[in-house]
Task: inverse folding
């Protein structure tokens, strides 16, 4: 098992290096940082523009491979360069990661668990009313784009607040600006801001995982080893949990590992609509503003997330299926 994971780690590190390199070179070639200085009145002298771009290692007059070498040299020392605003990319990256984690951690984990449980129940009670209800709800959520779902939840929250005559749900930003009070006041305020975006993610994850888990569970319910376990006297519930569900969890565990890693930079609509300034929003804004260093940092972080997700997927696979536990 250890040698297996070490081999996967080495392979993943090579893939991370390749993916990050291609991402930086693509951003360096396709983005145009010089355009940020165009249209200013009075126009800045070309020498001033070149000096500023050289400071940011984003001068298009410098060969992209040379800029890439400079960026890699800084990366080796933990320096990802600076944004166009002059702030260290490393500090901004850490802040954005914290925002995305606060938003996504609860929603992704909770949605995954609820989706797996709903999918397993739906498969066990196939064609019953519960199965039809779960299927209908899942397809309803999956048929709506995420921004439509978020806006619908916002409208429901606004009407509910008007109905009760109080700000029960907050739907913009991480917290209320200028809020006075102690620890519990700020905690309640943050929870009020967290409910709607978390619910959006929970519904999406629940819908996806319930479909995956239902399909996987149906594949194993009629397996010989499940019927044999019950024939030997094992109670149906224990046979379903110990044998059927454990096997059916393998594809869901793999999907969860990768989806959680990619969701940190993929929840752009959720962050934009609810005013959370996380990784997804930063990536879109950085591409739009031709901030090469920020785009490269997000690409590097995403590649590392995929590496970690792959390792977690392998570990989960080995725990669920002893056949892959090689020495």
Result:
């Amino acid at each position: 098992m250890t040698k297996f994971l070490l081999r996967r780690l080495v392979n993943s590190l090579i893939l991370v290096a390749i993916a990050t390199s291609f991402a930086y070179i693509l951003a360096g070639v396709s983005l145009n940082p010089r355009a940020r200085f165009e249209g200013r009145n009075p126009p800045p002298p070309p020498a001033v523009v070149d000096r500023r771009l050289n400071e940011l290692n984003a001068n298009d007059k410098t060969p992209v491979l040379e800029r890439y070498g400079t960026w890699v040299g800084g990366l080796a020392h933990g320096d990802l360069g600076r944004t166009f605003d002059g702030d260290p990319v490393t500090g901004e990256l850490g802040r954005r990661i914290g925002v995305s984690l606060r938003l996504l951690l609860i929603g992704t984990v909770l949605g995954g668990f609820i989706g797996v449980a709903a999918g397993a129940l739906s498969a066990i009670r196939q064609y019953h009313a519960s199965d039809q209800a779960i299927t209908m709800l899942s397809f309803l959520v999956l048929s709506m784009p995420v921004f439509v779902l978020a806006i619908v939840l916002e409208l429901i929250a606004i009407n509910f607040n008007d109905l009760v005559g109080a700000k029960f749900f907050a739907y913009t930003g991480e917290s209320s600006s200028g809020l006075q009070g102690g620890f519990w006041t700020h905690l309640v305020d943050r929870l009020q801001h967290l409910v709607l975006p978390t619910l959006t993610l929970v519904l999406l994850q629940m819908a996806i995982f319930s479909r995956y888990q239902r399909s996987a569970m149906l594949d194993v319910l009629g397996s010989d080893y499940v019927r044999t376990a019950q024939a030997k006297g094992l109670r149906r519930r224990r046979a379903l949990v110990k044998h059927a569900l454990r096997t059916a969890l393998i594809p869901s565990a793999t999907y969860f590992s990768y989806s959680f890693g990619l969701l940190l930079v993929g929840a752009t609509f959720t962050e934009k609509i609810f005013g959370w300034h996380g990784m997804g929003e930063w990536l879109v804004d950085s591409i739009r503003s031709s901030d090469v260093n920020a785009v490269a940092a997000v690409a590097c972080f995403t590649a590392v997330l995929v590496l970690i997700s792959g390792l977690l997927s392998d570990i989960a696979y080995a725990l669920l299926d002893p056949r892959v536990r090689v020495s």
